């Protein structure tokens, strides 16, 4: 009889952790889904400074041009002839987003003009140049 009362007391004093674990997992899933992920261009770029810099929220395609005029899209170096098809493919995945070009201080304007021209040919009018806020 004494064993029976001990097990009943242990069961009465035990805390069920299952609901708490369920809540923790639901919170984890919520934070993962709602987190905003920072897009990286794949190469380090020294952006020019500007006094009128504004934050851009709906950029879906991030293009980087380094100091040696190499074009990087989606963390991969892209041949200049493949810029338009790459932008077209990425824009098809998210048609509402725009393009942000991160050009290095020492990059040629020709590479940036090529990216802007490819975007305009595809009908993408939301093209921005990334700068450092002065």
Automatic annotation (TrEMBL):
Membrane topology, from the record: Single-pass membrane protein; Single-pass type II membrane protein
Name by which UniProt lists this protein: Biopolymer transporter ExbD
Cellular compartments annotated: Cell membrane
Lineage top rank: taxon: Bacteria
Membership in a protein family: Belongs to the ExbD/TolR family.
GO biological-process terms attached to the record: protein transport
One of the record's GO cellular component terms: plasma membrane
Keyword rRNA-binding among UniProt keywords: no
Pfam families: ExbD
Residue stretches spanning the membrane: 20-38
Recorded GO MF terms: transmembrane transporter activity
